[in-house]
């Protein structure tokens, strides 16, 4: 609790305990935390260059929700394993914003990958549709409370579907991360 409080005072809403990222809602937006440079930093260090490091690359990075989304993408791409991200907290804790940030980061990882390949038109359409659906889903079952003007009245399950090639050579994965396309 002391760590959470001291980081909150310093406008650092994230902290880490093992593999878990804990966020304290700062009730304000910190543009510097979500700049494109940060998105790329976490993607580069935890996805694209992580296999080149002989230690846990998270040690070089401050705790951030981008860590969660980058590691989920890496687990999907490298191991081909389904990934789950659980966002939990009480009313007004910032769950909805955290999910938006996480989804946008996952989409940006995929988008940046395809921009480099020159293949972005169809994938961009899918990414846009997926991200644009979140506010629509938020509109169902929300109510105004004393603590939150847009409080959810239910739990949500969102599933992002990715396509990963089945014929990935395991030997090449040590050098290159397989492409995963956001498909729905």
Topology:
Elements lengths: L1 H8 L4 E4 L2 E4 L12 H13 L16 H15 L15 H23 L3 H18 L3 E2 L7 E2 L9 E2 L17 E2 L2
Antiparallel strand pairs: 1-2, 3-4, 5-6
Helix pairs in contact: 2-3, 3-4, 4-5
**Quaternary state, please?**
single chain
Total number of β-strand segments? 6
Roughly what is the average pLDDT, rounded to an integer?
80
Listing every helix as H and every strand as E from the N terminus to the C terminus, the arrangement reads HEEHHHHEEEE
SSE-based structural type:
mainly alpha
Low-confidence stretches: none
> Can you summarize the main beta sheet?
2 strands, antiparallel
Strand percentage lies at: 5-15%
Strand order of the largest sheet: 1-2
Which shape, going by the Cα principal axes? globular
- N→C terminal distance: 38 Å
Radius of gyration: 17 Å
The number of helices is: 5
Estimate the helix proportion, in percent.
40-55%
């Amino acid at each position: 609790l002391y760590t959470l409080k001291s980081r909150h005072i310093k406008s650092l809403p994230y902290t880490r305990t093992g593999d878990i990222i804990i966020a304290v809602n700062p009730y304000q937006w910190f543009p510097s935390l979500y700049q494109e440079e940060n998105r790329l930093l976490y993607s580069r260090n935890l996805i694209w260059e992580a296999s080149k490091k002989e230690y846990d690359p998270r040690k070089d990075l401050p705790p951030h929700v981008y860590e969660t989304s980058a590691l989920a993408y890496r687990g999907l791409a490298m191991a081909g394993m389904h990934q789950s991200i659980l966002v939990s907290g009480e009313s007004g804790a910032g769950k909805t914003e955290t999910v938006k940030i996480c989804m946008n980061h996952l989409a940006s990882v995929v988008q940046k990958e395809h921009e480099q390949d020159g293949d972005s038109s169809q994938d961009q359409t899918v990414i846009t549709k997926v991200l644009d659906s979140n506010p629509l889903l938020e509109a169902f079952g929300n109510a105004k409370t004393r603590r939150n003007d847009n409080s959810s009245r239910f739990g949500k399950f969102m599933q992002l579907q990715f396509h990963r090639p089945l014929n990935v050579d395991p030997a090449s994965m040590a050098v290159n991360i397989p492409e995963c396309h956001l498909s729905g």
